[in-house]
Design goal:
two-stranded antiparallel ribbon, nine-stranded parallel beta sheet, TIM Barrel
Length: 366
């Protein structure tokens, strides 16, 4: 029997399917309006939201007080290298390619722990890392040095190590980008890539790091806006049940499936907000990332509500996704300590020494 929900349940669950971005370095009337209507699961920070580590700590502390007993989950892309939203005087982490050259899981776990120590001090609950894509295409414009290696087993071992370090120090991890973005020649921020690999190739290369991460207990996986032709020749994986179902059915994943940014042109140029909402939830998306535009955030939220009320989206799918998100979020979501007590952890000299060690060992292995 199909589960039915009240209108209040639908609106709440729809909001819990969204993590959104915003402009500015403080709480604004525009952000307050988004929080009032959408009531999202959380917020994601970008460089536009960051002036200094202390300001991030103060912003996160303020954001966490908005919903008493149900604090917003605060996320960031702090992979290292060119994908880092928070920079000096916070520690600037190396690329994962450099970490991969060291090929040392214990060193990588130490790196994850150091990253999480600084993020936790600033009030960040979730780091959208590690990248589990395998760097098999030297012409890939978007992954490249974000990947640990061109060898799937190396990516698997080091990705799991980084996640252990992050989560051991209190920050959630999220492996990305399933079903694999490592062998594309287009950047999904600007175009819709296609991958022509067979299912056997996917299982034996692209999915090895994801399988290992899932077996080790990783609680969140991000999707790729990539058409995997052997699974679904018409829709990108984020909006395709055939492309995402292997996560649950073959790899045994029971955690939270997170979309990449729905405002990226791979989606925005080809699908409406209504289609993204319906196709995404029906594909298995538990949380949509909507990075910046208030209009896109509101349109997605309203589309989720309407589609559920019209029973185009099954109520059970919406409520189950909300349940998975809440259960996972409870492990990591908490208010940061006051800066006077935790500020010394950001840019710590031991972290700088760790980076020097990684640089030296990577150079020795080139």
């Amino acid at each position: 029997m199909r589960m039915r929900a009240t209108r209040e349940d639908v609106r709440r669950a729809a909001g819990r399917h969204i993590i959104c971005g915003f402009d500015g370095t403080e709480l604004t009337p525009e952000l307050n309006e988004i929080l009032r209507e959408v009531n999202p699961a959380g917020l994601i920070l970008f460089a536009r939201n960051v002036e200094a580590p202390e300001q991030v700590n103060e912003l996160c502390r303020e954001l966490k007080t908005i919903r008493a007993g149900d604090p917003l989950l605060i996320c960031v892309d702090q992979e290292g290298g060119r994908v880092a939203r928070i920079r000096a005087p916070a520690t600037e982490w190396p690329t994962m390619r450099e970490v991969g050259r060291c090929n040392d899981p214990k060193l990588t776990e130490r790196l994850g722990s150091a990253m999480a120590t600084e993020l936790r001090a600033m009030g960040i609950d979730l780091n959208l890392a590690p990248v589990l894509d395998v760097d098999t295409n030297p012409d890939n414009p978007v992954i490249g040095d974000r990947s640990f290696s061109r060898e799937p087993e190396t990516v698997a071992e080091l990705g799991c190590a980084l996640a252990r370090g992050l989560e051991g120090a209190g920050v959630g991890s999220c492996g990305k980008h399933f079903p694999g973005h490592g062998d594309t020649d287009l950047d999904s921020h600007f175009a819709l890539p296609h991958v022509g690999h067979s299912p056997d190739r996917l299982r034996n290369t692209e999915w090895i790091p994801f399988r290992r991460a899932i077996d080790s207990g990783m609680g969140a996986v991000m999707t790729a806006h990539v058409v995997v032709e052997a699974l679904d020749p018409t829709r990108p994986a984020t909006l395709s049940r055939p492309a995402l179902s292997p996560l649950r059915d073959q790899l045994g994943f029971r955690g939270v499936i997170v979309s990449d940014d729905i405002e990226m042109q791979a989606l925005a140029d080809h699908f409406t907000s209504e289609e993204i909402a319906v196709f995404g939830v029906n594909a298995g998306i538990d949380v949509f990332l909507a990075y910046q535009q208030p209009e896109a955030i509101l349109n997605l939220y309203r589309s989720l509500v309407v589609a559920c009320e019209q029973e185009i989206i099954d109520h059970a799918d919406l409520l189950d996704g909300e349940t998975r998100l809440i259960k996972w979020r409870q492990q990591f979501c908490r208010v940061p300590g006051p800066w006077a007590k935790v500020g010394h952890l950001v840019g710590h000299h031991e972290h700088r020494r760790l980076i020097t060690e990684i640089h030296q060992r990577a150079m020795g292995n080139v």
